[in-house]
């Protein structure tokens, strides 16, 4: 047995198709038995079996098609009209098959077309039956109208049931997508809250501790002692690393600021000279702006950790589409991106950008610097 989610998402109308196949087979067998028992023409049995062949070739596909009508539906409808009319002329008992053929017609064709096909199949048997019984023409007409009305009502009910089930399946699919999106948003919100908490904890513990160590070593006053000097350098380096980690974990600096202003703040607070350039202008959705600021934080953090660069260039470009591109290029030692996998920060960046329909590219060569390029769509 599948999971409850799979069972809920499965289209109940699709699960009913094997029962329709079985119903058609039962009605066909009953019709053939009726013809044989009443001494009907054997050719009528052959014609009914040909309807079965038509159903196997075209009818099953037409009934199961998500959108009606299809060319298979028209082929099957034409075959039913011709074969059934001929069978009924040879053996009036063939009219029993209408109890399966009419519902099938409404499942394979749209309502108005199905009514027309039903009239074509129903009128002949009704006229023949009433004429054989010597009925008055008015009674024949009334019987035909009543029979067609009942058949049409049944067909309309089947058609409406199918449409309602299709709409239900569509709403369930939309509900599942919405739940997945909400779960993703909730997960992202939880991750951001946890990152902010970690940033606060690191600031209150490690950063404060390293700052205190630097102050205590400076108060010692023995700057000529190599061990003291090395301890001060190590403490300052770790304090710098800790502050960079806090900046990467903290929420993007977008409160009350545009994307350009937020990137300018990051550049101004960076340890190396960062040249910032902006081309074009466009409205950037909040989620896209946040993703770009996060990408800039990660890119600058990688430059500081690995590049050994002297300067950095951050470029933001608004392009038609609309879309926005951001690149961070350094003049550091570079590396071959194909030689190794991404770290955790780059993987998180790729996941965030990909969820928004964007792309991340990293290019570089040993000794020639590295460029991180991010492109995101600005439309819904």
Plain-language structure description:
With 380 residues, the chain is α+β, with helices and mostly antiparallel strands. The chain folds into two domains: 4-176, no CATH class; 253-380, Histidine kinase-like ATPase, C-terminal domain (Heat Shock Protein 90, 2-Layer Sandwich). The chain contains eleven helices and five strands, in the order αααααααααβαββαββ. It has a five-stranded mixed beta sheet with strand order 1-2-3-5-4. A hairpin with a 5-residue loop joins β4 and β5 (370-377). α3 (42-64) packs parallel to α5 (98-108). The longest helix has 84 residues, at 137-220. The protein is rod-shaped and about 125 Å long. The chain starts with a helix and ends with a strand. The model is unreliable at 1-10 (pLDDT under 50).
Number of helices: 11
Mean pLDDT: 78
| Structure classification | alpha+beta
Distance between the termini: 39 Å
Q: Total domains, how many?
A: 2
Output the radius of gyration: 38 Å
User: Tell me, what's the shape?
Assistant: rod-shaped
Portion of residues within helices: 55-70%
Could you spell the SSE succession in H and E letters? HHHHHHHHHEHEEHEE
Low-confidence stretches: 1-10
The largest sheet is:
5 strands, mixed
Strand content: 5-15%
Strand adjacency order, main sheet = 1-2-3-5-4
Total count of strands: 5
Pfam family, one: HisKA_3
Protein name: Oxygen sensor histidine kinase NreB
EC number: 2.7.13.3
Subcellular location: Cytoplasm
């Amino acid at each position: 047995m599948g999971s409850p989610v799979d069972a809920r998402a499965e289209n109940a109308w699709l699960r009913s198709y094997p029962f329709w196949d079985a119903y058609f087979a039962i009605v066909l067998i009953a019709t053939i038995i009726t013809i044989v028992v009443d001494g009907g023409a054997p050719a009528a049995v052959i014609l009914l079996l040909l309807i079965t062949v038509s159903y196997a070739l075209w009818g099953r596909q037409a009934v199961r098609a998500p959108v009606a009508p299809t060319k298979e539906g028209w082929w099957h409808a034409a075959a039913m009209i011709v074969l059934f009319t001929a069978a009924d002329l040879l053996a009036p008992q063939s009219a029993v098959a209408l109890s399966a053929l009419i519902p099938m017609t409404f499942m394979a064709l749209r309502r108005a077309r199905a009514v027309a096909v039903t009239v074509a199949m129903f009128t002949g048997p009704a006229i023949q039956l009433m004429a054989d019984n010597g009925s008055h023409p008015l009674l024949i007409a009334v019987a035909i109208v009543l029979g067609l009305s009942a058949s049409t009502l049944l067909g309309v009910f089947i058609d409406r049931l199918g449409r309602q089930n299709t709409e239900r399946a569509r709403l369930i699919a939309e509900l599942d997508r919405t739940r997945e999106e909400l779960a993703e948003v909730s997960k992202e919100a939880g991750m951001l809250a946890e990152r902010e908490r970690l940033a606060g904890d690191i600031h209150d513990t490690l950063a404060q501790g390293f700052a205190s160590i630097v102050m205590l070593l400076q108060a010692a006053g023995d700057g000529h002692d190599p061990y003291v000097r090395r301890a001060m350098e190590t403490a300052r380096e770790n304090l710098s690393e800790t502050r960079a980690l806090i900046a990467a974990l903290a929420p993007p600096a977008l409160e009350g600021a545009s994307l350009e202003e937020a990137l300018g703040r990051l550049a101004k607070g960076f340890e190396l000279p960062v040249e910032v350039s902006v081309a074009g202008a466009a409205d950037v959705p909040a989620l896209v702006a946040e993703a770009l600021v996060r990408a800039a934080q990660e890119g600058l953090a990688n430059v500081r950790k690995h590049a050994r660069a002297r300067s950095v260039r951050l470029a933001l470009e608004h392009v038609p589409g609309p879309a926005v591109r951001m690149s961070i290029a350094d003049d550091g030692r570079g590396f071959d991106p194909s030689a190794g996998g991404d770290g955790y920060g780059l993987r998180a960046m790729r996941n965030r950008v990909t969820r928004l329909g964007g792309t991340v590219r990293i290019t570089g060569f040993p000794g020639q610097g590295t460029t991180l390029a991010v492109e995101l769509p600005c439309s819904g």
